[in-house]
């Protein structure tokens, strides 16, 4: 029990620390599960602890979310942000529903693919962070709807584990001339419907094989994911405003490289 609780806490911490930064929380969790020999039936644990990260974002942004929802009928900026998020969310719905089974049964079961995508994504993030065009849009509320749609199309790349949902949306935003902090903030807003829908759909699709017997481990992972995600969300915007995304590019390359070497060695 002690060992399983410790593993649950470690995986919850990993989820919370990596969900909203562009390093792929799913890739980290799948690789950690592979090397630790941990996998729950129907991936109940891995799916449910993501709700801890979603809840953290809802708590941190509760005031702004409430403002947008209650003023959208009279405030053009609030309405524009709401519509932009829905437009960006739509492509992921289509691709997620059509490709769900292939993603879960093939891509999620290929650790070397995850390691390679971490490395490639890290290289791309380093290049975009340095070479992105000068920004035209300095807030999440100012994005044209066509820009939101392109960001949503980029988000679909995150269906490949190891790519990173936040990484794909941030790279797409930077290429569309969105300022670095605004890119991260729009990624936050887009993650709410995307992650909420993805978790709900996963639970529905796997309802016949879900394993709720380890509720104590799920509760531990959920709680740790929530606390650590709150800290990351509060820290991230200020950090990227000052330093950009290079740290996360190197993080991806190091983790992906270490994982690839370990997998090649037979671990």
UniProtKB/TrEMBL annotation:
GO biological process, one term: response to antibiotic
Cell compartments where the protein resides: Cell membrane
Transmembrane segments: 48-69, 81-100, 112-131, 143-162, 182-204, 216-237, 249-266
Top class in the EC scheme: hydrolase
GO MF annotations in UniProt: undecaprenyl-diphosphatase activity
Chief subcellular location: membrane
InterPro entries: UppP
GO cellular component, one term: plasma membrane
Catalytic activity: di-trans,octa-cis-undecaprenyl diphosphate + H2O = di-trans,octa-cis-undecaprenyl phosphate + phosphate + H(+)
Alphabetized UniProt keyword annotations: Antibiotic resistance, Cell membrane, Cell shape, Cell wall biogenesis/degradation, Hydrolase, Membrane, Peptidoglycan synthesis, Transmembrane, Transmembrane helix
Membrane topology term: Multi-pass membrane protein
Pfam families noted in UniProt: BacA
E.C. number: 3.6.1.27
Entries under HAMAP family matching the protein: Undec_diphosphatase
Further details from the record: Bacitracin is thought to be involved in the inhibition of peptidoglycan synthesis by sequestering undecaprenyl diphosphate, thereby reducing the pool of lipid carrier available.
Similarity section: Belongs to the UppP family.
Function: Catalyzes the dephosphorylation of undecaprenyl diphosphate (UPP). Confers resistance to bacitracin.
Protein name from the UniProt record: Undecaprenyl-diphosphatase
Species this chain originates from: Neotabrizicola shimadae
């Amino acid at each position: 029990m002690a060992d399983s609780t410790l593993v649950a806490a470690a995986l919850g911490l990993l989820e919370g620390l990596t969900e909203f930064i562009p390093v792929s929380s799913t890739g980290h969790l799948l690789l950690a599960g592979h090397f630790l020999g941990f996998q729950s039936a129907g991936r109940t644990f891995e799916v449910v602890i993501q709700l801890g990260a979603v809840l953290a974002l809802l708590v941190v942004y509760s005031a702004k979310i409430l403002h947008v929802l209650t003023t959208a009928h009279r405030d053009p900026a609030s309405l524009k942000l709401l519509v932009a998020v829905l437009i960006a969310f739509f492509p992921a719905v289509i691709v997620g529903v059509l490709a769900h089974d292939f993603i879960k049964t093939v891509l999620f079961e290929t650790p070397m693919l995850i390691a390679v995508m971490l490395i490639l994504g890290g290289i791309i993030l380093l290049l975009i962070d340095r070479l992105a065009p000068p920004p035209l849009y300095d807030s999440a509320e100012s994005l044209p709807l066509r820009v939101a749609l392109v960001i949503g199309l980029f988000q679909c790349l995150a269906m490949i584990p190891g790519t990173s949902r936040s990484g794909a949306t941030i790279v797409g935003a930077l290429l569309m001339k969105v300022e670095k902090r605004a890119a991260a903030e729009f990624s936050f807003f887009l993650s709410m419907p995307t992650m909420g829908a993805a978790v709900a759909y996963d639970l529905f699709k796997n309802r016949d094989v879900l394993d709720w017997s380890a509720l104590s481990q799920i509760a531990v992972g959920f709680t740790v994911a929530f606390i650590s995600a709150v800290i990351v969300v509060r820290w991230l915007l200020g950090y990227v405003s000052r330093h950009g995304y290079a740290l996360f590019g190197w993080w991806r390359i190091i983790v992906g490289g270490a994982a690839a070497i370990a997998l090649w060695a037979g671990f």
